[in-house]
Amino acid sequence: MNGVQEVAGSNPVAPICPFAVNKNIRKEAVVVVDKSCINVGILGWGTVGTGVSKILINQNTLISKNSGIQLCVKKVVKRTLPASREGIELPADCLTSDPAEVVDNPEIDIVVELIGGISEAHSLITRAIQNGKHVVTANKALLAEHGGELFQLAKKHQVSLNFEASTAGGIPIIKTLQESFTANQIQSIYGIVNGTCNYMLTEMNERGVDFADVLTDAQEKGFAEADPTLDVEGIDAAQKLTLLIALAYGVNLSVDQFHVEGITDISQQEIQYAHELGYVIKLLAIAKLTDDNRVEARVHPTLLPERSLLANVGGAFNAVCVIGSAVGPTLFYGQGAGEMPTASAVVADIIDAAKSIQWGVSSPISQAWLSNSETEITVCSIDDIETRYYLRFVVIDRPGVLASIGNILGNHNISIASVIQKEPHGTDTVSLMMLTHKAREKNMKAALKQIYTLEVVKGDAKLIRIEEEVAF
Amino acid sequence: MNGVQEVAGSNPVAPICPFAVNKNIRKEAVVVVDKSCINVGILGWGTVGTGVSKILINQNTLISKNSGIQLCVKKVVKRTLPASREGIELPADCLTSDPAEVVDNPEIDIVVELIGGISEAHSLITRAIQNGKHVVTANKALLAEHGGELFQLAKKHQVSLNFEASTAGGIPIIKTLQESFTANQIQSIYGIVNGTCNYMLTEMNERGVDFADVLTDAQEKGFAEADPTLDVEGIDAAQKLTLLIALAYGVNLSVDQFHVEGITDISQQEIQYAHELGYVIKLLAIAKLTDDNRVEARVHPTLLPERSLLANVGGAFNAVCVIGSAVGPTLFYGQGAGEMPTASAVVADIIDAAKSIQWGVSSPISQAWLSNSETEITVCSIDDIETRYYLRFVVIDRPGVLASIGNILGNHNISIASVIQKEPHGTDTVSLMMLTHKAREKNMKAALKQIYTLEVVKGDAKLIRIEEEVAF
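^ Those are the sequences you sent over. The predicted structure of the assembly is below.
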């Protein structure tokens, strides 16, 4: 910390708030830093890291013109050296394999963590914050697990910890929740936040291919990882949902505290039956404030009315609907992943941190993350939610089957809205589809348990929840 | 300025940027103001003013929890007193008919201008800024005319001038362009930014009613003014486009510098023919950066592919597509008008200004507005744009007509993509619809001039431009 001169005795400038007269004010001297250049260190030079360095170096003039900030890439950490990337030339001595050259480097102002994973990222971010550096990260897994602790640490050290790129890539949903919708009680959030799943479901819907084939295709095209578990099982979407919920409701959840269901059970049959009924299947991350002040949190395949905006979000795109008490229904759409869209969000975060440095203030750390301990909002169990359902039973083609199932549903307060029964195709079983009116999940579970005891019902039903509030 | 104690000699707190070592830094003492409450004065207690006071008073705890800011409604100016509003109780002595009690009141920190119009709003905002007050406004007409000057004044007095609610109501498009997309060269903007026109076009599309009837209906429902000129002639959308262009390109345009065309010429016939061709008609505000670094600016009815997201923005809703160099295509959707959505944006601006006050810095005034004088970007004349066209000619039903028109178009480098000719309905004239490939507007004008000299062509053609880039 040596080298920073104290300002006592210097001429104070005209106060910026001249109307502060007669106010209950606390006055402190702070240092306004007007640096010729703000230095950025990047941990990780994979896809996003490359995109970030491209923007910072190739678009330096644009950024300076748009923001008044001069940014400089000082160090880039890549574990295995040497390396070069097309479309970008790093300054000499910039590339290193030692993260300490970033997180412990007194010349570096802002640390950008893009290595992913949890353990090393956690320790490097912690060290950077302790060294007084502002941090930008795209690491949703880390924040979903350690967000509360890291934000407390950032607050203690008066640095910002920005994470726009962690959820929905280039879409500024974090800033929107943190800043633009502050005057709103968030009533609900519906997010298509996993591009891999959305790409796969779109392909299944438009090309009629089945899950396994589209997964292979997505892997070949780079839309899915070699091990697709995190994506297709809904875990990635769930991690992002924890961040959105922390911002919207001040509740710090972990993904094992709510219902998470991926798309591995979605077959071409469900896609087609949904289409016949006027619906499209999307993997949604859903959060809702209930009337009794609890938060519903869930990730699952969802039937959306075909004509709704969210149902028409295709390919690897993301979209997040937020319904606020004042603003009403909103939707934000864009690319949720990829080199440049994610880098766009990371650089916006870097610029916000740089403004904090130039102004001598710490960025607005989400109040929500920090007010967690005081909050009285609790999670609503999946058993307590009320929603409409799509059900498909495979049943023996015999008189009275529909009546038996209908009776059991009725006894559990579940009312059927519509039924379709398909002709049998050379077997003695048929598919029986039902859309229900709104019902309570625990009633549905109990009813299904009883239905499964019927001899005429073969195997478990396909159950997909329906959301209509988002039909705009 | 009296009453603010100088900070010289006081103990400086630990500098927030401990890494400022060895830097080229300028140090100044500033006053950090930690006020128990930040006072807001509201000019105008119409629809939006009422919404703003409702949020500030009824949602005070929520705002404080979400932002850490304590806001207080100090004065509300309503020209004709007394008045009361359902759902809101103002503090005693809060309501006044004298704007000076807001703009000259040393107790008031943030002035919210919601009276609309230009002359009085301009003089009150000027006075407020000169008195060192931060200003929030929703007045797009004022900013479209005096934005450059007012932002310069705000910069001089180190106060913020926030205007999120001026464009697209509750949608945070201003903040997105100013902050989230700073790392992007904005390639194009396509906005449905006038709710009245979108409501009318949606009704014409869905209910098959004609312009005059839907206008009466919109007026009865409060979606259109008694004098709808500003809306239906595209002027309101054009004013909003000037703000978006100022932010995206640093060019300060006035609405008479570009092509502005409303929806008054859109008949039920065009709606239906467009539908047959797979398109929907929307009033779009369009800005594009051309390859030779000029800005295309135009407002006109536009054919959009039926399945695109923008084509499915219905009713009085707004949506803005922004295509950025890094982030790619994005879309922002929400309510563009109305008491609470607009108030949501105004209050977000108030909170941003309040943060500036608490931090002792002025809010980020758009660099774009201020860098105007240096910019080299000029406006591209409508004659120079290239786009696809929908044309409908009314022609005499006689052999050779299509060939004559086709020849003239061909001679002007305009290539026809598809043609539909309708059977005559008891008259000797028929409608001849054409979609062209991309063509230059000045060629189209010249071709049409020549086509109109053909004896077989009756009256002017209906011409609607087509946008396909936004087909996501």
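Residues 394 and 458 of chain B are 5 Å apart (CA to CA). Confidence is low (pLDDT under 50) at residues 1-34 of chain B.

Shout if you want it in another format.
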